[in-house]
Amino acid sequence: MTKRMNPIVDFVFKRIFGTEENKDLLLSFLNATLKPEEGNQLKEITLVDPHINADQVGDKASILDVRAKTKTGEQINIEVQLHNKYDMEKRSLYYWAKMYEGQLAEGEPYRNLKKTVTISIVDFSYLPSKSYHSVFRLREDAEKFILTDNLEIHFLELPKLGFEHQETSDLLVKWLLFLKAESETKLEELAMSEPTIRKAINVLEFLSQDKEARKLYEMREMALKDELNMIEGAKAEGRTEGERQKALEIAREMLAEGDSPERVAKLTKLPLEGIEKLKKQPH
Known about the structure:
By secondary structure, the protein is an alpha/beta fold. It contains 10 helices and 6 strands. A 6-stranded mixed sheet has the order 1-2-3-4-6-5, sandwiched between helices. α6 packs across α7, α8 (211-256) runs antiparallel to α9 and α9 (261-268) packs across α10 (272-280). The N and C termini lie far apart (68 Å).
């Protein structure tokens, strides 16, 4: 049996939610996430740049977000992230700002700016909140009134879905459990409980069996793995630099107490040449 693709990989997510034939899935997910008042649910959506090409898939720097515009002109961006780059709040705000600014042509009045929403789905715990769903808006500190509803940023953190969320009628939780795709049994339960999720599972199964989609998926997995290696390498370099600075601090103290450069180099594992230069530096 062919291994099922991971729906949280951005290539797969976009194929499920970011195509014309699956706009009903996107609408279901957005209504579950944004939770509009009764009667104001999204019924129409226009996809922005729904296409994916092989060059994008193989490039770890490519952004395969799902972007859409509502009937009233509101901008929505959905991003999925497998790996923690430690910059999600700035990244989300940057995407929001680019989308917001990009609405206006030169000379157009600011009143034409429409609400812009970013949704970040992450496969790691990031925010200090215990909640799996965090929503940010522009509020006044003391009286809590909203300056404008034009800014709205959502974080959906998959690891924060616990055992207590497994049996639920909340559609957003069901969609997030689909994205976690932890077991066949859970997917079957979700398919039985929600027609749109049943369709999403069918799309996922089709993609998993399709040879061309599988080839692109594996290319994307490799690109994302390269990206993770870069992140881990940067972290390791940061730790190494921290250790080096600590060793230099110890070396200075030992030299100040009269230890020989040879003894300092042996105990700190720093090069003797560097220790001798350190000794010549003024204290």
